Amino acid sequence: MSNVAKLSGALPANDQKNGLDAQVANLINEPNVNRVGFVVFKTKSINEDVEHGTKVPTIGIERFEPICTLDELPDEIGELIVNAAAKRTGGEPLPLDPSEIVED
Fold it and tell me: How far from 36 is each of 2, 23, 69, 71, 74, CA to CA, in Å?
């Protein structure tokens, strides 16, 4: 996990905002399938280490919406994800499919 940001384990209880619950059977029956979804998030809390002068935000998921499996991903959405990663990193992003990642 990141040393500069944390992720809250809690998902919204409201099934209109938490689409993950509808995926339980798929997750159990196909545990090794990579899936894609949209996440809406915001800062839930900020932990301050006064001694070291650091602040670490914890991100809370506001909405989780499963879209499809990775192999069903429309090209347009895949390009959007890859372009966002390239913009964020300033370089060539890793491929979406984990099997295409070459370890050094």
Answer: 21, 12, 6, 9, 11
